[in-house]
Design goal:
Rossmann fold, about 45% helix, 5-stranded parallel β-sheet, 5 helices, about 120 residues, alpha/beta
Length: about 120
């Protein structure tokens, strides 16, 4: 069982990801913004952070960069969720520190596969 933080400004997406991951036995935390995610990460660690790329206020890219700069959170695996498959935007996610990405609309199979891959790579 892994500790997973789901960060998305859309409640329906957070709920969808939650419903996919609950049967896998993961311990989940939900955040509606980058600021809320950082507050959760101050109190708890996460093995995996699933981050929406486009959020108001703090973008997913900015959140990933802050997670990577913090010694307490820098080793968490990060999966970026994005509706864009534009190479430049995918490259930007990897440059910021994301370990992988999954495209929206979310495919349950793709999400589960990416989560399993990220967690298997956890040291």
């Amino acid at each position: 069982m892994a500790r997973v933080l789901i960060v998305d400004d859309e409640e329906s997406i957070r709920d969808l990801i939650k419903e996919v991951l609950i049967p896998e036995g993961h311990e989940l935390e939900l955040a509606e913004s980058g600021v809320a995610a950082l507050e959760i990460l101050r109190r708890k660690t996460a093995d995996l952070v699933i981050v929406d790329r486009n959020m108001p206020g703090m973008t997913g890219i900015e959140l990933v960069q802050l997670i990577r700069r913090n010694p307490k959170t820098k080793d968490a695996k990060i999966l970026m969720c994005t509706a864009s498959s534009v190479t430049k935007e995918v490259d930007e996610a990897f440059s910021a520190g994301a370990d992988d990405y999954v495209l929206k609309p979310l495919s349950f199979a793709a999400l589960l596969s990416k989560v399993a891959k990220a967690l298997a790579a956890k040291p």
